[in-house]
Request: fold
Amino acid sequence: MGIVKNFLLRMHNQTIAELSAGLKAGEYSSLELTERFLSRIRQYGEQLNCFVTVSEERAFADADAADLARSKGQAGPLTGIPLAHKDIFCTKGIKTSCGSKMLDNFVAPYDATVVNRCRTAGMVLLGKLNMDELAMGSSNETSWYGPVKNPWDADSVPGGSSGGSAAAVAARLSPAATGTDTGGSIRQPASFCGITGLKPTYGRVSRYGMIAFASSLDQGGPMTRTAEDAALLLQVMAGFDEKDSTSVDRPVPDYRAALDAPLDGLKVGIPEEFFEHGLNPEIAARIESAIDEYRRLGARIHSISLPNMHLSVPAYYVVAPAECSANLSRYDGVRFGYRCEEPKDLADLYTRSRGEGFGAEVKRRILIGTYALSAGYYDAYYLKAQKVRHRISDDFKKAFEQVDVLVGPTAPSAAFGLGEKTGDPIAMYLSDIFTIGANLAGVPAISIPAGFVDNKPVGMQLIGDYFAEERLLNWAHRYQQATDWHTRMPQGFE
Amino acid sequence: MNEMQWEVVIGLEIHAQLATRSKIFSGASTAYGAAPNTQACAVDLGLPGVLPVLNREAVRMAVKFGLAIEATIAPCSIFARKNYFYPDLPKGYQISQYELPVVAKGRLNIFVDGEERTIGVTRAHLEEDAGKSLHEDFHGLTGIDLNRAGTPLLEIVSEPDIRSAAEAVAYMKKLHVLVRYLEICDGNMQEGSFRCDANVSVRPKGETALGTRTETKNLNSFRFVEKAINYEIERQIELLESGGTVIQETRLYDSNKDETRPMRSKEEANDYRYFPDPDLLPLEIDASLIEAVKRELPELPDEKRTRFREQYGLSDDDAATLTDSRELADFFEATVTAAGAEPKLCANWVMGELAAALNRSGLSIDQSPLSPEQLGGLLTRIEDNTISGKIAKEVFNRMWDERLSADVVIEQQGLSRLPTAPRSKRSSTQ
Reply:
């Protein structure tokens, strides 16, 4: 009895794979599991500020349905497993704010495809997670709902834009979360919070119902504690969707099948540009010892060059704002969302609704993007950035002719302090310097815990070739089998 | 003023609403006349997170049109966002095609005063329509109806090859006939399914550089196109001859006052900031689709007209009138078959008595109460001398009023001038 009770108390510290086995063995019900996570959210949610909405009623209903399905022998691997969605995924009947005052009153009449898929798989929706406003930010400080705290250090940011997702998973308030990654928004917060975050190949996960920031870069993905859990969740999220013209009609492999494949002969490329100026030497040391681990696992290490990497941040900050400037035009106060009080005419309705509804960072990007697309500037900015983007893609293609995977740091530093970079947008933008390239090229990349600096987690990034998620997960899983960084738990959340 | 010294240069942009059942980027219905906002789904409303998916039928229709005007069909064309704010434009941008349209470099032959001219078609591209702003019914407020938002349009842009209002009307009519032949547009101008913007400029005869043009928007009848262009020509010439200059601007035609008025000038016009829509892949059209559409192409108006001249020995004018719509041409041919009579006689009756009767009743040819077989039955009796042409008109009127066959009317009224009506060639008495 004592052992069982002890085990039940530690339920929240289990991985999805373990919880799935526990549910299957009847050690606990989905309802008990759900209640456990909801009570943890009640206990820690406010101090971390990682939830915008907690959907208790829906969670209990989902859990009941999951338990019922299990009793009928209709349970799949994720039936009854709780998760929370980044508040960028539309949920029918539950507010979808996207971290913005503009959408503080928005309830979508439809589920995003990702939400729908998770629901169909029997997962339990705990709530919606805080994020940078409209996914624009690298620290979760641009949210209309206030910043999220990093569970490892309350004075540090959790990263962004999927900061709420990373913090919730790290603090064991949810076994898994969804995130979206436009320039590093899954990987950088995963790195800062010591969890596993995968940005799939562009087109692998449907964008339908995922509120657009920069349509050609946005990609949803899993945020979990382990690579194995990421494989389980990606299995549900991935797949062709006829509602998203950019989703790719290609079979989804069994992501768990190859998790344990040996790494003998794996060709690991180390992009020299990742270790140049700007990289914290302690981060470099952590990554170098992780690379040593790969060597011990049988990989061969090669030095590689991504010669146009220095152009990725400038190109990104033309392409992404250009697309967002058009994507955000629909927030005009006419049909939904925030509308200013008593507009006196149409121009006033537009200027005040948008002026009052959007925060400073969003406005900055709309202005940059509008400028970049304007007559007379289009060629110099937008078109040039597209050319740079092609070059960056070519760099990756060439690299993957020589090696299987690129390994480096996810971010140039560990989690920085709250307020430390809010006054300096360029410094903030540079925190995505290692992650943006994968978005511009559309290749998949994963961030996994690889150690600590000053008691704050450090993430290692693995970048693979197009649709190499299966192998990325294998490489990450093998590393996690050999190390225990991913099992560490922030203090105060036991 | 000596008008002869000026040359008129006109280019038309025609918006043809494609007759697809659902919208160009969503599954909502395109049917006209539903209660406001009942045919607008989440995609048409531009709600957060929704995405456009291209309607393949709209593409097929564009290809059909391109083939019919002997144009180039782009193997790869691009959808672009045209950015501007307006309450009836839900996304704040219109999805259109900009640099690479689906159809390019076609041509259309028109006849004006017995002379044939070729008008170049620069391009035809696919785009979505906006919704409607309703200013009349709400005191001090504007109503928005998004039923029309997302309706597929084919914008057909001509070269500045047109030299008079009469040519402009001939070109527009020719296109109107063509899109209905192809069954890609219902051609209903009152409902806005086929509308025109006219770019007009004038220059001294012999000058090669173009004069400054104005664009007159949303002309939804042939008469308005003619009147608006003529008004604009006169206005520009008067302006230039009195030492003024034409301003490049967008104008609206007011049919009540028969004049055009400035809407907005190009200087204050929007910078539309076109860029490729990242939500849609490049539109690729392969040879097999083009071949399939080619096989579906009906006999086109010009081909039919030539055939009618040759096969039926009709004058060019008669052939042109009868091929004005597919329905009329089909009616004529069915009448010839049923009557077994001289095609010229059939043509005269279809264009004469029948057309007049339809016109009086406000009916179109496909609503004709008399079938081609019934009309053919009457013409058989003229041809075989049972009745004279004069008596036939009386018979026609009885047939029309009482929906009777020719033979029944002739027998009931004792109108036959022959001792006995030849029964062998009796046609349907239905």
Notes: Chain B touches chain A through 28 residues (CB under 8 Å).
